[in-house]
Protein 1
Amino acid sequence: MEKDTVIRIKGLLKQFPIGGQFFTALKNVDLDLNEGEFTGLVGPSGSGKTTLLNIIGGLDSPTEGQVSVLGQALNDTSHAERARLRRKHMGFIFQSYNLLPVYTVFENVELPLILNKVDKNERRSMVAQAVESVGLRDKMDSRPNMLSGGECQRTAIARAIVHQPALVLADEPTANLDAENSHHIMKILSNLNKELSTSFIFATHDEKIMAYLRRIIHLGDGEITKDEIIDNPKAHD
């Protein structure tokens, strides 16, 4: 595997059994993504973008084909090995935030570091840095029910990047946000991408996200229909 290749997918087929038959969610998918890319999987509902994101994240398995992520051939790894890869080297951002309601912003962001057995003093420093990067230093002790939707999503972003992962997967991260908050979130993510060289992959059909992407992979009926490099994305104007 090439040094700078974060994801390599060859001949991917994904089928789901439905009523004695099979629904084909993905077919004939070949895809390479390199370190530091800011990429979107774009298409209408049912096009296969979330299924592809889940396979890249090791949350689902292909029916056929080879999937390699961060140097690991996912076809040959156990559930425990995939969980370890996610915990150590990936971050996830969901449209529903998935914050723990009884935890403060600090505690929600700290959780991945606890799971990775990071020393307590180092955890405090890393959490403070991540929360600062999303502009929530004054909300450190607030719980999710005290936050706006935009602040909840910024907390989720801090949690996703606190351990400085090599790869962040984001599934419709601005779906529950207004335009102003959506642009604010995308500027934060674009800056983190540049500062940390973290690779970002979005599953989206939101044009506000697309304006910031540097590569757009279009999906239709489970196949890649177009793969385009964007020369002048909004965040880099």
Protein 2
Amino acid sequence: MKVSTDAVVLGALVSCSEPAAVLDIGTGTGVLALMMAQKYPSSQIEAIELEQEAFLQASQNVMQSPFFPRVNVIHDDFKIFSAKQGKRYDLIISNPPYFAGQLQSGQKAIDLARHENGLNFAEIWKGVDKLLAENGSFWLILPYREMSIFTEMGLGYGLYQKNVTSLIDKQGGNGHRKIAAFTRINTASPQQYTLTIRDHSGAFMPEYRQALREFMLHF
């Protein structure tokens, strides 16, 4: 599986005050877990992945990185993991399943990553509510429609948007993704931001390059 723009932008924008314990739900290639290990040198990161090939790839990527001692890739179903886990996490991150109910690709690995086959929104919220520390934060990225549904469901668990960033592919275009941070603090008006990836000519915008500079070699 390729490293997606969604994942690297989410990882770059995550902000948390030196979390001791970090959980990445559905780690895929492991890129988000590795970004958190780079960003927070004192953190211990656990990365959950259900799909076998993705788990093996993430494990290999972690073992070949300088962050190997602090990142643990776990082959498990998040529903099962969250039910049996007693530990709390200061930071939880996810680039979760989405496009629920829409046409699927027919490829199992892609469908698990991009739809609700392997893990649905209700199961994510149930697990996050159990595992998130009282003062912790939960960050994820979703398309606009799915983020609206997801945010509404979170209210039932007492988790509220703290800030939201609208991600726009090209200058002057419409937003296509939202990155949101959720906490247990009821914020009436979450902070709103916008990040545009490319300008009219197709070149990367300065603010996008700045956000990813610490992680992308060509920036």
Protein 3
Amino acid sequence: MQATAWATQDSYRITPDDIRAYQRDGAVHLQSVLQGEALAQLTRGLEELHARPTGQITRVKAADGEGGTLIGQNASWGYASLIDLVEQGELARIAGQLMEVRSAQLILDQVFYKEPGRIVPTPWHQDTPFLCVRGMDMARVWISCDPSPREVTLQVVRGSHRWNVIYDTRSDANAAVAMQDGDTEFTYAGMGDERLPASPDVETHRDSFDILSWQVEPGDAIVFQGNVLHGAPGLDHHPVPRRAFATMWGGPDLRYHQSAGATMPTPQHSSGAAMHHGARIADYPEVFPVFWRD
């Protein structure tokens, strides 16, 4: 294992204003969370994955076949640079302090590598229906290693984490805006629960929603709650990649949920003991590893 990059920079200080914004809006923009060697380490890890993608990889293109996005699920475990950024616990601490919990466990990590040129939009959705957990103590730390202007960066519907509704993975949008390439190693097919309402068509009715967006610089993070509606716009041409690493963290009282459909893979496989619907994830540290304690 390589030396921890965080030793070269001060830990990011979460302020009371950051916590209030996260709790109230469901998302907060944190500037320069990664700097120097830590940011270079993230960039190396994402480039290693792009150059030799292995494991649970999905490739996404627009419906007309243009654009290219590579998504890696639980990508950190195959790449030393990404493993180190997770294991040193700083991302877990940031999530835990914003959630105001005493410990943070890894639920999922993903790489989103949008190649230069046509940027494929990400449809509006919640993360929750894709996961095997439910609850309010769930924070996604999304970090970009590229300049990411508002027109291609993650956007969220302010306060939607408190609407007390979980949507299905499908959307009320009139047409699919992206599709999976036919030759993928991982599929989203079968995920969700069709008994739940479809996600609203935010893009068509943007004026009806309070949408937050940010100008993101390399090393910035957007941290958002798992129930918040979010998406990312498309663009006909963007001259540089838009590369991001997103880790999802849960507090100890987050609950394991047996979904009616398929769910994203857990960070570690169960040791063989059955996980019980409604149980606290604190009971399953072997499946959802703890990377920070207060």
Protein 4
Amino acid sequence: MAERQPAGSALERPALAKINLYLHVVGRRPDGYHLLESLIVFAGVGDRITVAPAPTLMFRLEGPRQAGVPANDDNLMMRAARALAAAEGITAGATITLAKHLPTAAGIGGGSSDAATTLRGLGALWSVDDARLAALAPTLGADVPVCLFGRAALMSGIGERIEAAPALPLAWLVLVNPGVALATPPVFSAFKGPFSTSIPKLDPGRDAASLARALDATRNDLQEPAITLAPVVAETLAALRAQPDCLLARMSGSGATCFGLFTTAEAATRSATAIRVAQPTWWVEAAPLVTDVRRFAA
């Protein structure tokens, strides 16, 4: 069942960054959609969504990275709200406030995480069951279902097949975006193959170093296509790999955000500071690897 919101109260939740620890392109459907296999986790940094009762549906935008986010009905959050109200026959309204902190068009599912968090908040406000939210999520975008799932997941198909990932060890991430927006369609268009073969489920081990060794057998098939479109992605990866405590550096999603995997908060924070000093115009954040969004938000 959906969580219940006390009548008349506002509900605030984080919309965490979605990270593809690996992303394999394994085929292509006749309709042009690529088939993927990916291990999804979240990072403990993101936007903030507030949902509050109101006479009508209204959207408010704030935060340091609001530039470029549609503030009208084109916003995916408002599309999600209207779709949920229509599907459930709900006439009540809500004020949805987005405090935007994540970069846009960045390969970390910011818009999808915002939409999924909006669904979760409205589900609490309007008493809509989680199963009904999950049925609606695929109509809003390929990454919305896994963001609504909100736990470490093995995602396949075009995003519609989701299963819980094996237990992952404690680890920290450093996220780095060089300030270049990369739209997803051009990156997929730049992918020329070959398609990856399916891989056995990974044994992530008991610590971050073991997880990094397991991930060495995987990759992000969109990383090289993204570099051809935005060579600064290669510079971003090099900056992460130059950090002495970085266990693995890889691009997330279709880019341009890259992540480094670290054992401790201290190592991640130290490396994030070093990169931020060297590249003051880049977006750099150290954050824990999150395997359960709801527990993190509690």
